[in-house]
């Protein structure tokens, strides 16, 4: 199948502007992208990938090379750690997060964190917790641990950011907003999921992302106040459970 797809690429690659790949098996994607030089599409502006990331660092070489080869032309990038309609994706969380953040030296050279997309306008990322099945240290599950590389460095011209799947703690949202605010951010659209909707969230957004025109926040709990200790550990909201209009 991959050979047939490569032949198809060879015919159309000079005209392709958009590619969307979806598979429950990452090895299918990795096998297709192994010969990234043969798949170079000079006019590619949109790339979407929906797959369960089951490979260890060496398995990402083809994907990494493909993204690097098209970094200067890509304007829209979607990466989701599951194909449409998939439900059970916990088994890939650590491997996926490792690829995004290069949590060990083996993943560093192929990591998404090492990329720069100078023309990227739209970025959609599915996020997961960095859960390691071999790490019994509870620190690995902390809700304030880093799960996203610097967006301002990854895509300095970004105007639309969508973060899906994982509800984000206030600390994680603050880190993302601070990163964008410390750069010459052009962000106009932000979509994300929040663990808790609270006044402090709107405060940081309105004070730091001044160019924002569209905001979409999905949430599971609304709070009138969020108590945070000096160590920045969330102690709990002053609220009532359930969704609020």
Can you walk me through this structure?
The protein is an alpha/beta fold and 245 residues long. The chain has one domain: Alpha-Beta Horseshoe (Leucine-rich repeat, LRR (right-handed beta-alpha superhelix)), CATH 3.80.10.10. The chain contains eight helices and nine strands. Helix 2 (26-33) crosses helix 3 and helix 7 packs parallel to helix 8 (199-208). The longest helix is centred in the last third of the chain and has 12 residues, at 170-181. The relative contact order is 0.10.
Q: Percent range for helical residues?
A: 25-40%
Q: How many strand segments?
A: 9
Order of helices and strands: HEHEHEHHEHEHEHEEE
Per the principal axes of the C-alpha atoms, what is the gross shape? globular
| Computed CA radius of gyration, to the nearest angstrom | 19 Å
Characterize the biggest β-sheet: 7 strands, parallel
Structural classification? alpha/beta
CATH architecture designation: Alpha-Beta Horseshoe
- Assembly state (oligomeric): single chain
From the N-terminal CA to the C-terminal CA, the straight-line distance is 49 Å
Spans of at least 5 consecutive residues whose pLDDT stays below 50 are 229-245
